[in-house]
Amino acid sequence: MVSNPVLEAIKSRRAIRSYEDKPVPESAIQTMLEAATYAPSAINVQPWKFTIVTNKAEMKKLSDTAKPMLVRMLPDVGDEGLAGLKKRLADPNYNIFYNAPQLIFVSGLKSPYGIYDCSMAAQNMMLSAYTLGVGSCWIGTAVALANQPNVKADLGVPEDHEVHAAIIFGYPKGGFPKAPEKRPAQVLKRIT
Ligand SMILES: Cc1cc2nc3c(=O)[nH]c(=O)nc-3n(C[C@H](O)[C@H](O)[C@H](O)COP(=O)(O)O)c2cc1C
């Protein structure tokens, strides 16, 4: 495959779940936010808004509230992954934000395309972070809680907006792990 910096970032970014106790510099945050704003969006509405959290006690509080809520929400099916997640969520030492130094919520005006637009912005943030040596991990387990009216208000998210993504950032402890090969693309059909 052709190699260039964009492909390198796409193929080497990893979900990072262990972080150095070191803040992400403001210059890196600004670069990531700017990268987010260059994402494509339906009818160019650019709906993304950001809530930046660096207070670890607040993150722990959110994590402690999210965990029992998720355990109640998740179905009791015999799925191995789900059972593992439920077990982690029941562990008092598990922090859904992995003690990362930085958490950013991406919200957008409620709309049919908001989730796609904000997800694109989120991916731009994670890829640009990687190019700066900053690790990241999308935290889907935080979104249901973030959309509870009282939490949403605390995050500064207006009532007519929805939180679509929560991403943690920080310097990876021990560097970036090597990316494993992913399954090859499955082309269902070529219509020529
Ligand atoms: C929508 C979404 C939600 C995710 N939620 C979580 C999460 O709550 N906790 C977590 O540790 N990782 C979460 N992840 C990260 C995935 O587990 C990770 O991307 C996947 O295992 C592939 O690993 P990689 O990113 O290193 O390629 C999420 C990823 C996505 C895209």
Q: Could you please describe the fold and organization of this structure?
A:
The protein is α+β, with helices and mostly antiparallel strands. 40% of the residues lie in helices and 14% in strands. Helix 1 packs across helix 5 (114-131) and helix 2 crosses helix 5. The longest helix is centred in the middle third of the chain and has 18 residues, at 56-73. The chain starts with a helix and ends in a 22-residue tail after the last strand. The model has no long low-confidence stretch (mean pLDDT 96). Bound molecules: flavin mononucleotide. The site of flavin mononucleotide (FMN) has 8 residues, from strand 3.
State the gist of this model.
The chain has seven helices and four strands.
Topology (SSEs and partners):
Blueprint: H1 5-12, H2 26-37, E1 49-53, H3 56-73, H4 80-90, E2 102-109, H5 114-131, E3 135-138, H6 143-146, H7 149-154, E4 161-170
Antiparallel strand pairs: 1-2, 2-4, 3-4
This protein binds flavin mononucleotide.
The site of flavin mononucleotide has 8 residues, from strand 3.
